[in-house]
Amino acid sequence: MDIIRERLAVSTPAEHERRLHARLDANCPVVLEIYLSETPQYASVIGRLINISLGGCLILSEHLPWRNVEPSNIDEIVYSTIETTCKVYLPWSNLLRIATIRRVGVFTAAVEFDRPISEKLVEKIAGMEQRGARTFKPRNPWKYNRILPRK
Predict the structure, then answer these.
(1) Residues spanned by the domain of 98
(2) Would 1 be classed as within a structural domain?
(3) How many CA atoms lie within 13 A of 149 on its CB side?
(4) Measured between alpha carbons, how far is 137 from 134 in angstroms, rounded to an integer?
(5) What is the CATH number of the domain that holds 37?
(6) pLDDT, tens digit, 9 for 90 and up, residues 8-39
């Protein structure tokens, strides 16, 4: 039992916790603009906002450029091919923020905003869609979910 407590004490996430603000569940469309580091290209990916706080959000998308990467290699491959700076756009709230990609999964990206958003806006976004009915239909669908040259 003492060994388990020892291991838990060593790996306690609270010591390494960066989170400063409470996260609220969200379920609305989001566009994540990701820049490739080696080439002048980018990808505007349509996804769903999973949660949001004053300082960042978690995005889920099946269109992320690294979706086919083996999960064990994802950090190494992703962080060597993309810039950590990105843009987050929430169409229904008209929010555009520059952000930093902090963590990635096969279908997720956790980002930290360059400057916090207001608590009122976070609550508005979190309360926007409880059932996830809102969708985002871009005027130019060819610009999304693929890699394009930077302008």
Answers:
(1) 20-149
(2) no
(3) 1
(4) 10
(5) 2.40.10.220
(6) 344 444 444 555 667 888 888 999 999 999 88
Q: Can you give the pLDDT at residue 128?
A: 78
Q: How buried is residue 131: exposed, middle or buried, by Cβ count under 10 Å (0-12/13-18/19+)?
A: exposed
Q: Are 86 and 34 in contact (CB under 8 A)?
A: yes
Question: Does 46 reside within a domain?
Answer: yes
CA distance 3 to 26: 39
Cβ proximity of 46 and 140 under 8 Å:
no
**Which residues contact residue 30 at a Cβ distance below 8 angstroms, ignoring those fewer than 6 apart?**
46, 47, 48, 49, 57, 59, 88, 89, 90, 91
Structure tokens at 124: 């508005």
85 lies in some domain = yes
The mean pLDDT value of the chain amounts to 83
